[in-house]
């Protein structure tokens, strides 16, 4: 007797939509470079007012697009604010129109404003929820709807970035917890479309928001004595969307070097 053979997962279309790719030194940009190196054409979403408001920096995604196009990749830039519920499905539609069926969705966008239980405003909490949770749901929904159920299809891979930080970062941390649950449910609810979902918690990555004290504290709380880089996140994304990583589904993965936060 021959052992039963498992279904071989067809390769995904080499097209990806990545949200939150504003700055070249951000995690989204590193993921874009990694997927481009693997042959993916890219649609990149960004929202310049967020980077200016929270980090005091302007978006330089045009330079990233030029870099990737010079290497032969098709790159479409899709600026928009994910607080608007009409935006997520429109981004998926625009990416498909320019690149064809999407194989990968990576959500790196977020709203993140430091505030606590006593001083978070309703307006701020609602925006965090709209951007971090509702937009992620609507993006995943539109991404899955492009795949016909019940067919021998390549399906798709969706990956979301999360965090376990909550203390004095209440609306960000609370909405990231909700994001985790809805994305992980996707692997089960969307199984008939062969859409696989995972969540990555990369731990502290310095993309410009850390000062020397935070940087030193994070390194001291990591066994290797140093922080991870944006490339460490990109490497895991590249593996998860590959055929070699296709059997990892419905997981919350800690890729943080063993980081142990002194305070959640």
Automatic annotation (TrEMBL):
InterPro entries: NAD(P)-bd_dom_sf, SDR_fam. Keywords: Oxidoreductase. One of its GO terms (molecular function) is oxidoreductase activity, acting on CH-OH group of donors. Pfam families: adh_short_C2. The keyword Kinase does not apply. Belongs to the short-chain dehydrogenases/reductases (SDR) family. This is Short-chain dehydrogenase. The lineage of its organism: Bacteria, Bacillati, Actinomycetota, Actinomycetes, Micrococcales.
């Amino acid at each position: 007797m021959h052992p039963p053979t498992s279904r071989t997962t067809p390769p995904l279309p080499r097209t990806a939509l990545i949200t939150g790719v504003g700055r070249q030194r951000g995690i989204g940009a590193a993921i874009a470079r990694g997927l481009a190196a693997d042959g993916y054409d890219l649609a990149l979403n960004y929202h310049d007012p967020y980077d200016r408001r929270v980090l005091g920096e302007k978006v330089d995604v045009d330079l990233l697009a030029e870099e990737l196009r010079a290497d032969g990749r098709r790159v479409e830039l899709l600026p928009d604010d994910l607080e608007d519920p009409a935006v997520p499905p429109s981004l998926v539609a625009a990416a498909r129109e320019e690149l064809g069926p999407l194989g990968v969705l990576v959500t790196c966008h977020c709203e993140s404003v430091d505030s606590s239980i006593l001083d978070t405003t309703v307006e701020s909490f609602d925006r965090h929820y709209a951007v971090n949770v509702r937009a992620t749901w609507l993006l995943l929904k539109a991404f899955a709807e492009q795949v016909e159920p019940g067919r021998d299809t390549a399906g798709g891979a969706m990956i979301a970035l999360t965090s376990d930080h909550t203390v004095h970062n209440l609306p960000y941390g609370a909405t990231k917890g909700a994001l985790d649950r809805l994305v992980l449910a996707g692997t089960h609810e969307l199984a008939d479309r062969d859409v696989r979902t995972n969540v990555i918690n990369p731990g502290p990555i310095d993309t410009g928001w850390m000062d020397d004290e935070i940087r030193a504290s994070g390194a001291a709380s990591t066994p290797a004595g140093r922080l991870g880089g944006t490339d460490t996140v990109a490497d895991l994304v590249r593996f998860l969307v590959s055929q070699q990583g296709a059997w990892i589904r419905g997981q919350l993965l800690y890729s943080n070097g063993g980081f142990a936060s002194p305070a959640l």
